[in-house]
Write a structure and sequence with these properties.
The protein is mostly helical and 53 residues long. The protein has two helices and no strands.
Length: 53
């Protein structure tokens, strides 16, 4: 569980960096922002114990 949570946290940081980079270059970053939101919700739900593996 800790390994999956850590992996998702690193993935979240990568998605955030990519979304900010696209936004800075004035490209469409809506897909990346959606990916950030989805991963963030999964991490929060795992933290509260709603999602368990």
């Amino acid at each position: 569980m800790f390994f999956i949570n850590g992996l998702l946290a690193v993935l979240l940081i990568g998605f955030m960096e990519a979304a900010l980079g696209k936004a800075k270059r004035n490209e469409n970053s809506l897909g990346m922002l959606f990916a950030v939101l989805v991963v963030l919700v999964v991490i929060v739900l795992m933290g509260y114990g709603i999602i368990r593996f």
